[in-house]
Here is the input.
Amino acid sequence: MKRIPWLLGAAAVLGACDPPRPAAAPGPEEGRYEYTGRYLSPGQAQPHEFRGVLVINEANRERLTGQWLVPGFETPLQLGTFIEGGYDVGAEVDHMGLRGTFKHRLVPGPGGAWTCTAVFVARVDGTPLSNPATCSVTRVRG
Here is the structure.
């Protein structure tokens, strides 16, 4: 009977030394993803449309690294940070007079797919102006 309190105490100490680890982020597979994005500037009839490839070089539970192969986007992928169940991924844009940051949110969806939502942030007279945009990413197989 004297061993039971000692064993319980030892188990409590061991449990305190090894805290539970957060679950790994369900990172997208490394590789190429077809990308489409669309943004309509306020007051304009013609949207800015983007098509190309998002290349993911590395994906882990903290961040994505890679590059954009999308005309009008700077090549380096910005941020790629995993926050609250998804990745925040940015792209600097210079496209037909449109300049700013296309901010994407990649969240795991059904069947291993990724849902993409976006906001475009432009600077107008030094003031940031945010408007919704659309985007999609689809894994290229093969």
About this structure: The radius of gyration is 22 Å. Residues 10-14 have pLDDT under 50 and may be disordered.
